[in-house]
Specification:
DNA Binding (I), subunit A; two-stranded antiparallel sheet; about 5% strand; hydrolase; nuclease; endonuclease activity; HNH_nuc
Length: about 120
């Protein structure tokens, strides 16, 4: 029953970015009025997503190739991983796996978190 109810939530209800754009276009007085009566615990929903079983060797080779520097901006990784002390870079696929891209060293680059966000949302 819960899944059926969750499935009725429209994509636009879940799209935080579009809701933020709409809220920022509103008058500040309207936002404050809504905040005064807003529910403080957000609703939860269930998502069913496709995930990929990534090749660990690709990730290691791309990170080794990068030598601790972002392959987008060239800057050193912004911090080290707490788990093992290695430079924190994220492996990004040039052609997305969702667009039938290959999970290969040639189709991947190591990016700092800022460059990675820029690739997806910039």
């Amino acid at each position: 029953m819960r899944l059926a109810v969750s499935a009725q939530i429209s994509h636009s209800d879940l799209d935080l970015e579009s809701r933020v754009r709409k809220a920022s276009a509103d008058d500040a007085v309207l936002r404050r009025q809504r905040l005064a009566v807003a529910i403080t615990k957000p609703k939860r929903t269930v998502r069913i997503v496709h995930d990929y079983y990534r090749n660990a060797d690709v990730i290691v080779e791309v990170l080794n190739r990068a030598q601790g520097a972002c392959e987008g901006c060239g800057e050193p990784a912004p911090f080290n991983r707490r788990s093992n002390g290695t430079a924190y870079l994220e492996v990004h696929h040039i052609v997305r796996l969702a667009d039938d891209g290959n999970d290969t060293v040639e189709n991947a680059i190591a990016l700092c978190p800022n460059c990675h966000r820029r690739k997806h949302f910039g």
